[in-house]
Design a protein that fits this description.
35% helix, 13% strand, six-stranded parallel β-sheet, alpha/beta, Rossmann fold, formyl-CoA transferase activity, 2 domains, 11 strands, formyl-coa transferase, domain 3, elongated, three-stranded antiparallel β-sheet
Length: 410
């Protein structure tokens, strides 16, 4: 049996909703013992949000909390606080994404954690870093709007748009994992834990770095790779154009449904085969189209010509035909296309799990594959499912555990 990459690492998971649970789920998939601390009687708020099965944990919760153990602890009473402190003594990482100052006001400060366990690292996700916005709350779309994503997403003549990809929450969670792993690695040299902080605004802006690149370029003149006719002192919304050196567009395909599109990129070596498919061999050497530089001022016409051909094919036919001649392209896959893609299940990225209260559901697997640490995806825990088990691991006797339940501490 293979040893997991993070086997022996214990994470005290006080995160909730999406940003933090994304990170701790990745750590659990790599073998860490992730102990999710929840409020007795309620738990993570997402357990009850967006429910599709009455009185069962929602998919919002189950899809973000695989492979974890759940303990309920009430830190508002003395014995509950004592359990919490005992957990801190036995863990390597504390992860949380409460609003600014919440744990500090409860008496659980970085200094207190260090007193309890000098080797523990304390990792926090907040909406913003130090400065004018430090005390402001952030959610997915707020982070996108304040991190540069929304102002550069959409079409020029439309309002800013948030993306369907959860770059504010899950994107921050991935950054969070990097910080936690770096702290654990450094502890091997120093013997002590450290403070880890990730701001959602910062993570989104990091993912928008090419737009910040273009912000500096646009101050020197028009961005010729963009389809926009007018430029100002900020990066514009450019629809489906990449704004990079390889022009691309989403082109309509047969039979013309809502997602019957293929994204096609025109690289220098791809122009000739594209024009042959389109029956426009005359444009292969035409001075207005023969070179990437010449095509820049004719991009709408170029893609219109290609679209006349793609409209005669399905998006999958377009992908196969163009990939055969090394023209980069990809069909616009709907969530229905993806959840019905058998290859996703065959390679273990989509996994069907059985849940005791909601029945079967589809779970995303780990997007990172390690040759010596395969991931066995398990269902999310029920609220407090492992409370007694974890308390016994902490050395509590059956009588101690019963008393904690009677006091409402767990």
């Amino acid at each position: 049996m293979n040893t997991k990459a993070l086997e022996g690492v214990r994470v005290l998971d006080m995160t909730h909703v999406q940003a933090g649970p994304t990170a701790t789920q990745l750590l659990a998939w790599f073998g860490a013992d992730v102990i999710k601390v929840e409020l007795p009687g309620r738990g993570d708020i997402t357990r009850g949000q967006l429910r599709d099965v009455p009185d069962a944990d929602s998919l919002y919760f189950t899809m973000l909390n695989s492979n974890k153990r759940s303990i309920t602890v009430n830190i508002k009473n003395a014995s509950g606080r004592a359990v919490m402190e005992d957990l801190v003594r036995h863990c390597d990482v504390i992860a949380e994404n409460f609003g600014p100052g919440v744990l500090d006001r409860a008496g659980f400060t970085w200094e207190r954690f260090q007193e309890l366990n000098p080797r523990i690292s304390y990792a926090s996700i907040k909406g913003f870093g130090p400065g004018a916005y430090a005390d402001c709350k952030a959610y997915e779309n707020v982070a996108q709007c304040m991190g540069g994503a929304s102002s550069t997403t959409g079409f020029e003549d439309s309002p800013p748009v948030v993306t369907g990809a959860q770059i504010g929450d899950s994107g921050t969670g991935v950054h969070f994992v990097v910080g936690i792993l770096a702290a654990l690695l450094q502890r091997e040299k120093t013997g002590r834990g450290q403070r880890i902080e990730v701001a959602m605004q910062d993570a989104v802006l990091n993912l928008c770095r090419v737009k910040l690149r273009d912000q500096q370029r646009v101050m020197r003149g028009p961005l010729n790779e963009y389809p926009n006719e007018k430029f100002h002192d900020y990066v514009p919304r450019a629809g489906n154009a990449s704004g990079g050196g390889q022009p691309g567009a989403a082109l309509r395909c047969s039979p013309g449904g809502a997602n019957d599109y293929a994204y096609v990129i025109i690289q220098p070596q791809g122009w000739e085969p594209l024009m042959k498919f389109c029956g426009r061999e005359d444009l292969i050497t035409h001075p207005d189209f023969a070179t990437p530089e010449a095509r820049l001022s004719h991009l709408p016409e170029c893609f219109s010509i290609v679209e006349q051909w793609t409209c005669t094919k399905t998006k999958f036919e377009v992908m196969k035909t163009l990939n055969d001649v090394n023209v980069p392209c990809g069909p616009i896959l709907s969530t229905k296309d993806l959840i019905e893609d058998k290859s996703m299940y065959e390679r273990g990225f989509l996994v069907e799990l059985d849940h005791p209260t909601r029945g079967k559901y589809v779970q995303l697997g780990c997007p990172i594959n390690l040759s010596d640490s395969p991931v066995d995806v398990k269902r999310a825990p029920l609220l407090g499912e492992h409370t007694d088990e974890i308390l016994a691991w902490l050395g509590k006797s059956p009588a101690d555990i019963a008393k904690l339940h009677e006091e409402g501490s767990v």
